[in-house]
Specification:
- This protein has helices at residues 2-11, 67-79, 112-117, 125-140, 155-168, 174-186, 228-233, 254-263, 270-297, 303-310, 312-323, and strands at residues 20-25, 33-39, 46-52, 87-90, 100-104, 195-197, 206-209, 212-216, 223-225.
- It is α+β, with helices and mostly antiparallel strands and 327 residues long.
- It folds into two domains: 2-104, Phosphorylase Kinase, domain 1, CATH 3.30.200.20; 112-323, Aminoglycoside phosphotransferase (APH), C-terminal lobe (Aminoglycoside 3'-phosphotransferase, Chain: A, domain 2, Alpha-Beta Complex).
- The chain has a five-stranded antiparallel sheet with strand order 1-2-3-5-4, with helices on both faces.
- Strand 1 and strand 2 (33-39) form a beta hairpin.
- Helix 5 packs antiparallel against helix 6.
- The longest helix has 28 residues, at 270-297.
Length: 327
């Protein structure tokens, strides 16, 4: 059924396409539905990915930019030289596939365990932190007037939303209370710079090859705000996967990340990055609690959501290490 729908859709915009083969739903992605398939074409098969809203799921999360905005952002990023998959088609009502878009499939790896340990990435790992800084500089340099309509976020808004979401779970956690108080007391105020913020720049949303970063995925949480937010988020301990002494994704240092960012002509504020690392750690903890809530209330009782929900306890340890470090 899916191959038939995709084949009909592809025929409407891809000249010469003779259908699709190998349509398979991918397991990754807890909030959007992702399918991989090949477009059969006389010039050679084209690897493609369908990213769409889950069928029957209901309204998108309040923070989401929207899949149509994601498609525009990816198109603009690719045009500006930021590594991003090429968007092939934005779904239309007549496609009968819901809301989403089809993009070109990029070869590479997204699984952190493999990126951090497999021999094929050994040459890339020492370069990745600096590369990520350069990529973030490119994202933050995209021209604001050309961007789709996005939410404008500040630290104060972020704190208020996190507290609202946390209290809505009715699941008291003293460490989260401590973090909220610290964030309110430490809020550095509005940033002098307002840029596009990817919002979820981390392992799992990066395609890595033996040569380094090949593509940035999942622009779902993109918004306008403090660019230091992205630098703090990529340093959150949850994305180090055991390599806690290498803050940037378990493969590099903050200094390497900052050097790559500044080599592209942008400025780093380390104190603000630290603030956003704390914010990001709490944010991930609250998001984990949210995944557990969604698992409980359905309609789709995804085991992946339950597994993510259990990780909220890890963020409590991370927050204590940040806010009350041992001597």
């Amino acid at each position: 059924m899916m191959e038939k729908l995709l084949g009909r859709c592809v025929a409407s915009w891809c000249a010469g396409a003779a259908g699709v083969v190998g349509a398979v739903r991918l397991s990754g992605g807890a909030s959007q539905e992702t399918w991989s398939f090949d477009i059969v074409h006389p010039g050679g098969n084209i690897g493609a990915i369908l990213r769409r809203a889950p069928q029957g799921y209901g309204a998108a999360p309040a923070r989401a930019a929207g899949l149509n905005a994601e498609a525009v952002l990816m198109q603009q990023a690719s045009a500006a030289g930021v590594p991003s998959p090429r968007v092939l088609h934005v779904l239309q009502p007549q496609d009968d596939l819901g809301t989403g878009f089809i993009m070109e499939r990029v070869d590479g790896e997204t699984i952190p365990r493999k990126i951090l340990r497999d021999d094929q990435f050994a040459q890339a790992r020492p370069k990745l932190a600096r590369q990520l800084g350069e990529v973030l500089a490119g994202i933050h340099g995209l021209a604001l007037p050309q961007l789709p309509e996005l939410r404008r976020m500040t630290a104060a808004k972020e704190i208020a939303e996190l507290e609202r979401d946390y209290r809505g779970f009715d699941w008291p956690r003293p460490v989260f209370e401590l973090a909220l108080r610290w964030l309110r007391d430490s809020d550095p105020g509005p940033s002098e710079q307002v840029t596009l913020v990817h919002g979820d720049f981390r392992h799992g949303n990066l395609i890595i090859g033996p040569d380094g970063v090949r593509a940035v995925l999942d622009w779902e949480l993109a918004h306008l705000g403090d660019p230091m937010e992205d630098l703090g988020w990529v340093c959150v301990n949850s994305w180090r996967f055991g390599e806690i002494d290498k803050p940037v994704g378990g493969f590099g240092s903050r200094e390497e990340l900052f050097a790559g960012y500044e080599s592209a002509g942008r400025r780093v504020d380390p104190a603000r990055v630290m603030f956003w690392e704390v914010m990001g750690t709490l944010r991930w903890g609250v998001m984990c609690c949210g995944m557990m809530q969604r698992f409980r209330i359905g309609p789709e009782h995804s085991i992946e959501r339950a597994m993510i929900g259990r990780r909220s306890s890890e963020t409590e340890i991370d927050l204590l290490r940040l806010l009350a470090p041992r001597a």
